[in-house]
Automatic annotation (TrEMBL):
This is methylmalonate-semialdehyde dehydrogenase (CoA acylating). GO terms for biological process: L-valine catabolic process; thymine catabolic process. Its EC number is 1.2.1.27. InterPro entries: Ald_DH/histidinol_DH, Ald_DH_C, Ald_DH_CS_CYS, Ald_DH_N, Aldehyde_DH_dom, MeMal-semiAld_DH. PANTHER family: MALONATE-SEMIALDEHYDE DEHYDROGENASE (PTHR43866:SF4). The keyword Transferase does not apply.
């Protein structure tokens, strides 16, 4: 069986802790590899390598740092099929979806090729007599990233690309469920010209995360995962004097106004609700049709579409979605669907017993559609993270708006309408970080920033866009007087008073 270790100081390193975790093929349920779970000593070795390499990398001019990313982007494109297959085999998503995962990460690598421009700072000539004032953006030193299973290529790249482009060294702790792609990305970064020690991958679980959060040489931590862990990582990192940005779970609503194009809305709900088997933090999990007639027409359109979803292993290139990531996820999602039925929601498409011939041990759940869900129900409050769409009927626009406004999470939201007034009002009033107008999954592109509000995000700087450059650098402001030899006596008032 394949043993997946760590990638430290530019080389593969076997795990020594004696602790491992199985890596499954979610389509078959077979264990295909075993991943090492790092000890404190293994994390410390990665930090030591990063610490030794970082000063020289920070002193490398930004054009040269950018060139590593030019090479890396070319390598990603050249290895796209290989990376997508590796990703799908451990995650379960379709190959096309895996390519999307890689490409959304690649786009952030393209963005940071602009680092010479992005890291330019401010200068004021003559801020006082013979005084100039300027600010520097210097790397934080060593950054760390802790990533979830659902985007094993994109999210590591969202973190390490800006961190490294800014002159930092980086420790990546990927999800233990699909660790192979992050290791392969680190190999490709070395091939692209990155010096050893600047990108280290340490596999592990809570113990490796705690070692990161308490290591005195790590200055900044980026986390993406579920809300309880995001909250824990944010608090622990802050208590240990680290800068942190932590992104959590979601429950994304899509409001469908009576004037919306319902074919367009139904198609959008299918892709956004069931793509990647609903295992996306920007998946739409709640549809809110406004008015009974809109709701009835929408359900009529959705039912046959959900029933005819094509579900298959990643080797089926016609599949719309694959299995869930683990048996545990499958059991949890089925349990939540049972709960919805018990709570009185109407399960109009029931995919709980879906079985795929030849893949009976795979972690599949068929597409499920609930109607008449209400805000008190657990299936409404909880992030299901599976192929389950809940329809909550709203009487009018204000009632529809109120639902995402009052929900605990605030990652993404969408409105489908032909009414510009309603769309504008919605975008302005909603208390959610990413808003789509006739766009179901409004994930901003690399040059804008990504992040939710409320319990979907802890910390104040988002991922990618210019926020990422701010997160991975520290500002230093220099006030300089030249020529230095101007004679003046001791001054006891503040200089700006003169
Ligand atoms: P998770 O919280 O279980 O794991 C995320 C990371 O935290 C992994 O690296 C894991 O090893 C580590 N971890 C797990 N338990 C820990 C603990 N007790 N202490 C410290 N570290 C721990 O999340 P997941 O199941 O891998 O990913 C799915 C979740 O991520 C969903 O809630 C989804 O919404 C969220 N997500 C959010 C975003 C976003 O940008 N807001 C993006 C993608 C995924």
């Amino acid at each position: 069986m394949t043993e997946i270790g760590h990638f430290i100081d530019g080389k593969h390193v076997a795990g020594t802790s004696g602790r491992t975790s199985p890596v499954y093929n979610p389509a078959t349920g077979e264990i295909q590899a075993s991943v090492s779970l790092a000890s404190d000593a293994e994390l410390a070795a990665a930090v030591a390598s990063a610490k030794a390499a970082q000063p020289k990398w920070a002193a490398t001019n930004p054009q040269r740092r950018a060139r590593v990313f030019i090479n890396f982007v070319n390598l990603l494109n050249a290895h796209m099929d290989e990376l997508a297959t590796l990703l799908s085999k451990e995650h379960g998503k379709t190959i096309e979806d895996a390519k999307g995962d890689i490409v959304r990460g690649l786009e952030v690598c393209e963005f940071v090729i602009g680092i010479p421009h992005l890291s330019k700072s401010e200068f004021t000539e003559g801020a006082g007599p013979n005084i100039d004032m300027y600010s520097l953006r210097q790397p934080v030193g060593i950054g760390a990233g802790i990533t979830p299973f659902n985007f094993p290529a994109m999210i590591p790249m969202w973190m390490f690309a800006p961190a490294i482009a800014c002159g930092n060294a980086f420790i990546l702790k990927p999800s233990e469920r699909d660790p192979s792609v992050p290791i392969r990305l680190a190999e490709l970064m070395i091939e692209a010209g990155l010096p050893a020690g600047i990108l280290n991958v340490v596999n592990g679980d809570k113990s490796a995360v705690d070692a990161i959060l308490t290591h005195p040489d790590i200055s900044a931590v980026s986390f993406v995962g579920s809300t309880p862990i995001a909250r824990y990582v944010y608090g622990t990192a802050a208590m240990n004097g680290k800068r942190a940005q932590c992104f959590g779970g979601a429950k994304n609503h899509m409001i469908i106004m009576p004037d919306a194009d319902l074919d367009q809305a139904a198609n959008a709900l299918m892709g956004a609700g069931y793509g990647s088997a609903g295992e996306r933090c920007m998946a739409i999990s709640v549809a809110v049709p406004v008015g009974e007639e809109t709701a009835n027409r929408l359900i009529e359109k959705l039912v046959p579409m959900v029933e005819s979803l094509r579900i298959g292993p990643y080797t089926d290139d016609k599949a719309d979605m694959g299995p869930l990531v683990t048996k545990e996820a499958q059991t949890r999602v089925r349990g939540l669907i049972d709960k919805g039925v018990e709570e009185g929601a109407k399960l109009v498409v029931d995919g709980r017993d879906f079985k795929l011939q030849g893949y009976e041990n795979g972690y599949f759940v068929g597409g499920c559609l609930f109607d008449h869900v209400t805000p008190e129900m657990d299936i409404y409050k909880t992030e299901i993270f599976g192929p389950v769409l809940s329809v909550v009927r709203a009487k009018n626009y204000e009632e529809a708006l109120d639902l995402p406004m009052k929900h605990e999470y605030g990652n993404g939201v969408a409105i489908f309408t032909r009414d510009g007034d309603a769309a504008r009002d919605f975008a302005s009033r909603i208390n959610i970080g990413m808003v789509g107008v006739n766009v179901p999954i409004p994930v901003p592109l690399a040059y804008h920033s990504f992040g939710g509000w409320k319990a979907s995000s802890f910390g104040d700087l988002n991922q990618h866009g210019t926020d990422s450059i701010r997160f991975w650098t520290r500002t230093k402001t220099v006030t300089a007087r030249w020529p230095s030899g101007i004679k003046s006596g001791a001054e006891f008032v503040m200089p700006t008073m003169r």
